[in-house]
């Protein structure tokens, strides 16, 4: 049977936004209030310029009074309510903009988050072996000033940390550890450490490997691990972030035996006995442990979490991420946030949301590891992937997740999908906000 399809579509056409985030977000909420009779929205706004539902899930009407079915949904203490700000969300308000314009925009968008009832923002500050902050290790991202290596003249991460904390939000720095580029339009500049290793005949094809149109760091290389951990330490040293966040990108899709043939041969020649798959998983495990240790060395109160694919078999066999181990043993992560991006009526029964949250809850055997659920805001109303047109899926999903023993919160992918969209998206935002107000 085919595996449930999954890769986070960073360039999904529906996720693009036109115009300012703050104004559009308020318009969405006002429309939701008028359409659903949700009069509870209005006081907060006045002060600011695949088939039917699963029988396992309560139904929530988008109309007035329809949330009564969820009144018994009790949030855990300190429920984590987060949203991802990908580099695409940030590019619209950052690339080529001045410091004051970016500051005003990010303040508006973080204010929108607080008004929705969220308490955490996860901002992507290292998408391509680059940085949205001044770094001694990585060049400025092209999403800062329009060209990789070009200084925008201000520190975007500093502004975001200050803005988040001023509004009572926690903020985590989201980095992609191994990805250097994914296509010609994200080619690294000459100062990028990945580019330097790729042009050096001693390290090309070993420390940095080309897969398709992309370049990737080889997780087997100790110097690669050192670079990534040093990058984490640099963020922790210079910014008062509340945590470090990885998503689902580890070994690249399509990495065949040649990807790390030289490194694996050195390992076997040195007496190593692991199979290639176990060798790769051990490399990722080692990095995850080192990042966890670096975070805790800075401050035990800081968190390190990972959001893997929702299909655990893909994680293990394609990404070489042993997420079951991380969720069942101490010393790897503080939380695991599977991307359960399928609805209650997905045509493949094993991929349905209610089935998946139970599956992932069973993996969280280590009491110190919290379960957060990654929710696909970008798929609101998409019947092909099991979502409905009722406008209540996200609220239902949070309510159902709250019944699981390991559950402690959720993350929405991604910010612009909460501000854009038609009637269904407006109902989804309104109904979720209503649930979070209870």
UniProtKB/TrEMBL annotation:
Every copy of the Glycosyl hydrolase-like domain together lies at: 80-382
Q: Has UniProt tagged this entry with the keyword Iron-sulfur?
A: no
Annotated InterPro entries:
Divisome_Glycosyl_Hydrolase, GH, GHL10
Q: Which Pfam families match?
A: GHL10 (PF02638)
Q: Which UniProt keywords apply?
A: Membrane, Signal, Transmembrane, Transmembrane helix
Q: Does the keyword Cytoplasm apply?
A: no
Q: Which Gene3D superfamilies match?
A: Glycosidases
Q: Which SUPFAM superfamilies match?
A: (Trans)glycosidases
List the residue ranges of the region (Disordered).
51-72
Q: What is this protein called?
A: Family 10 glycosylhydrolase
Bilayer-crossing regions: 21-42
Residue stretches of biased makeup (Low complexity):
53-72
- What organism does the UniProt record list as the source? Bittarella massiliensis (ex Durand et al. 2017)
